[in-house]
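Example record

One chain of 208 residues, shown exactly as stored in the release files.
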Amino acid sequence: MNKIWESDDFVGERVCLDFVNTVSHWSNPAAMEDLIPTYDEFLGWFKNAQCKDREETGWVLAFEEADEEIQARVMCDAGKLRKNIYEVFHAFANNRQPEMSHIAAVYEALAATVMFVEPVDRPKDLVGPANHVRILKPSGLLYPIAHSAARLLVDNCLCYIKECADQTCEWVFLDCSKSHRRRWCSMQTCGNRAKARKHYQKKCESAA
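Predicted structure tokens for this chain:
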């Protein structure tokens, strides 16, 4: 059964970071979980990933169903792109310079997928970014993600790329808060769990 995507699944503030966050526990292969293991799951995520309040490229889908060979190719390319985006922004989140090979791979994915989209005016029945593309082929699904990553690389905000303070989470996000003191991927998930642990610890200390 396909996952039901909710707002807490899209807390990265950029679609490329939300894409990275479809994997849990990057640094622990034994606990790693892929939330989009199949093409259908990926397509379901993609249809929910367009956040209305972000100034990123919007999209409309304009292709029919993909056969199994195309699906497999898209998922292979998607996995490579997601890994490279993770390596790039995981490095920035930990105050390191990413390897140029990972950055180059992001731009290569952008160049390889641009041929599968075309610019269009924003549909009148949609709100959100004015810059829209029509995705003509399944491989074009990777274009908005690669474009998001390439744009973030040249924005003056790389110092605000962070990882969730919950060490069991590792989700990546762009801290857009006014104070730039955001610690959690979401207060409704990791933030609340941290508050509960802190409260329990204080309660135990008081009892002792």
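Notes: The longest strand covers residues 58-61.
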